[in-house]
Amino acid sequence: MKRTTLVLLLLLCSGASANDSLDGAYERISLTNTRTGESPEASNRQGLLIMAHGHYSMMTMNPDRRFIPDEVVETMSAEEQIDYLKEWIDINGHTGRYEADEGKLTWYRDISENPREVGTVSNLNYEWRDNLLVIYFTLPNGDRYDWIWRRLK
């Protein structure tokens, strides 16, 4: 009986990690430079962040991003093709493992839209503000960015 109770207790405790408080699906609300109040992204940018069981997946993009078939792209001028490609590659997406503890969030990027970021680690901070997840980071120039996410039901 004691062994069964101990096993059940261990199972319950092992499932309640620091990651559990962040587990869920979130929609992107905003990304704001707290010094200037401006965003480096389009105001209507959309995004989805999913965190579960120690893994995360995140992607943001402009909703007006469009697909043009290759045969149409081939008929476009070089300038139009460049503009289209700039629009097409304007996404932010990566996935991998994550750890969260006491306001510190670490993303281990296993896959990324940017090949140079594969295998890198992002050390971020987070806090809850009015039921919103605020992930924040500071750039080398001292500017802090608040990335706000709302949990989906």
Please specify the SSE layout and strand pairing:
Layout lengths: L1 H13 L9 E10 L12 E7 L2 E7 L8 H4 L4 H11 L2 E11 L2 E9 L8 E9 L2 E7 L5 E8 L2
Antiparallel strand pairs: 1-2, 1-8, 2-3, 3-4, 4-5, 5-6, 6-7, 7-8
Structure description:
The protein has 153 residues and is an alpha+beta fold. The chain has a single domain (2-151), classed as Lipocalin (Beta Barrel). Helix content is 18%, strand content 44%. The protein has an eight-stranded antiparallel β-barrel. A hairpin with a 5-residue loop joins strand 7 and strand 8 (144-151). The longest helix has 13 residues, at 2-14. The radius of gyration is 20 Å and the shape is globular. The model is unreliable at 3-19 (pLDDT under 50).
Short description:
The chain is an alpha+beta fold. Helix content is 18%, strand content 44%.
What's the gyration radius in Å? 20 Å
Number of strands: 8
Quickly count the domains: 1
Largest sheet: 8 strands, antiparallel, barrel
Q: What value does the average pLDDT take?
A: 85
Shape: globular
**What percentage of residues falls in helices of 4 or more residues?**
10-25%
Strand order of the largest sheet: 1-2-3-4-5-6-7-8
Report the CATH topology name.
Answer: Lipocalin
CATH class: Mainly Beta
Low-confidence stretches: 3-19
Tell me the strand percentage band.
35-45%
Q: What's the helix count? A: 3
SSE arrangement, N to C: HEEEHHEEEEE
Strand-pairing-aware structural class: alpha+beta
CATH architecture: Beta Barrel
The termini sit apart by: 39 Å
